[in-house]
Amino acid sequence: MLSVLFLVLFVNLRLAYGLDSGHDPEINMTTIQMAQWWGYKEANIVYAQTEDGYLLEMHHIPYGRNGK
Question: How far is C-alpha 7 from the chain's CA centre?
Fold first, then answer.
């Protein structure tokens, strides 16, 4: 009985904390990698600095999936 309890606890912890990432290939991808995964031919990273010094990273997809 105790082993069943530990098994249920272990499975619930894996699901609750995302330790079972085998079902979602995008979980560890960057934004650029996800864009390529979904068929976008080109994706760029653009950096900008605000007047108060914050650095922003923006992602630009210039074309649709068909390249137009």
Answer: 29
Q: Which helix (H) or strand (E) holds 44?
A: strand 44-49
Backbone angles phi, psi at 46, to 5 degrees: -120, 135
Give the residue ranges of the chain where pLDDT is below 50: none
Nearest 5°: CA angle at 68, between 36 and 43? 30
Please tell me what DSSP assigns to residue 56.
E
Q: Which residue has the tokens 């923006």?
A: 58
| Collapsed DSSP state (helix, strand, coil) of residue 4 | helix
User: What is the per-residue pLDDT across 52-67, written as a single tens digit (0 to 9) for each?
Assistant: 999 999 999 998 887 7
The label of the residue with tokens 């137009």 reads 68
Contact between residue 62 and residue 44 where contact means Cβ atoms under 8 Å apart: yes
